[in-house]
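Slide 14.
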Amino acid sequence: MKTILMADPVRYQRMTTEELRETFLLDALYEPGKIHLNYVDLDRAVVGMVAPVEGAIALPTDADLRASYFTERREVGVLNIGGSGTVTVEGKSYELENLDVLYVGRGNADVSFESRDKSAPAVFYLLSYPAHASYPVTVVRKADAIPTELGSVETCNKRTVCKYIHLEGARSCQLVMGVTHLAAGSNWNTMPPHTHMRRSEIYMYFNLDAGARVFHLMGPPAETRHIVLGDKGVVISPGWSIHSGVGTRAYSFCWGMGGENQDYADMDPAPVERLR
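Slide 15: predicted structure.
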C-alpha cells in the first residue's frame, strides 16, 4: 500500500506539473486481476480499486494500518463500475450490478471481491475512512440512489447527482459517497465550484473513452491549477481546494468525502468571477 502525503496551500503554489500529479493524482489503481490501495494522510483515507477476473480477491490488511483486519477501525464504500460482481462480507454474499454501491461498516473481518463473468469482469472502486462507530452492511442499488438534476444545456453542465451513502440514505460513521453523471453534450462538473474545510473530497472519474480526458481544476479560488487525467483517474482534494473540471466529452465521477461532518450541503461557494 502506497502512502500519499498531502501538500499545504503554501507549498502548492510552487509545485511543478509533475509534483502536482505525484501529490494529488492517483492514476494507476486499475489493474485486471489485482487490488491496489493507497493510504492518504489527509483525513486518513484509503483509496483503492480491485478488478477480479479469474477468482476472488480478498481485502488485505496492510501492516501500515496497524490493524488485525482492514475494517477493525474503518468503514468502506464499494462502487461497482464494471460488470456484475459479488462482494462477500463475513460469509454473506452481496451481488452488485454496474453502479450499485455496498457500504461495509466497521468490524467485518472477512471481505472479498469476485466477478460473475470473467469475460465482463466487475471493477470495484473502494473509499475508506476511519470509523468510531459501527453501522450495518448496506446495499444501495443504482435505482435507489435518488437522482437530483442540476445544471443546464446552456451552461454545458447538465448533470444528474446520485447520493448513495449519506445522512438520508445508507448510514455511515463519516463517509459520504455518490456519483454524478454528465449528460451528453455537457462537460463541466461542480460549476460554480466550492470548498469545504470541514472535510476533504476525492473524485474518481470514469466512463471515459481511451482518448478522452478531464481537466480537473484545483487550488484556492484565487490560485487555481489543473490536472489532466483519463479513465479511472482519482484526484484528492484538500479542504482548502476547489474541485471542479471539464472534459473533452461527457463522463461520470464518483465523489466521496470524509471529515468533520456529513452534511452534503456544507460548502463555501467560490463564484466563477473570483477564480484566477
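Speaker note: The chain has one domain: 2-274.
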